[in-house]
Amino acid sequence: MNTQDHNLNMSRILTEYNIRPTTIRKNIAGLLFDGTDRHVSVDDVIEMAHAANVKTSVASVYNTLNRFALAGLLRRVSVDLGRMFFDTNLSEHHHFYYENEGRLEDIPHGLIKVSGLPKLPKGRAVKSINVMVWL
Ligand SMILES: [Zn+2]
Fold first, then answer.
1. Checking DSSP bridges between strand 93-98 and strand 132-134, what pairing results, if any?
2. Which of 18, 105, 108, 127 could form a disulfide with 96 if both were Cys (CB 3.0 to 4.6 A apart)?
3. Which residues surround ligand 1, an ion (CB under 5 A)?
4. How many distinct structural domains can be found in the chain?
5. Same domain, yes or no, for 39 and 52?
6. Three-class SS of residue 101?
7. pLDDT tens digits, one per residue of 6-55
8. CA distance 65 to 87
9. Residue 83 is part of which domain span?
């Protein structure tokens, strides 16, 4: 795919999610959405942008990733207070967390069975269960 087609494609994806396709958003989307499932931090995306000669700033990357997550184009995965990842895999799944390496790896949804949940509060239903296995 040439650069112009790739740009059009990113515009289409962003518009589909009701995100105005500004240059910085198209550039960041172009770095993230190449068909590979990935978990990225703000720092990872800044590094990817530098490697691809995309001009950006910490604030732009932070705002763009959060805008994408709010629109449902990325999923936020919080490991602890200081570590947030953005996941391009929007399907239901779980994670291995490699603590020493600071990285996540997907566990397919069907591989973990959760049992023994306590009785749910009245009027509530389970929306999703996300298991993180720390390694
Ligand atoms: Zn994931």
1. parallel
2. 105
3. 87, 89, 106
4. 2
5. yes
6. coil
7. 777 889 999 999 999 999 999 999 999 988 999 999 999 999 999 999 99
8. 10
9. 1-90
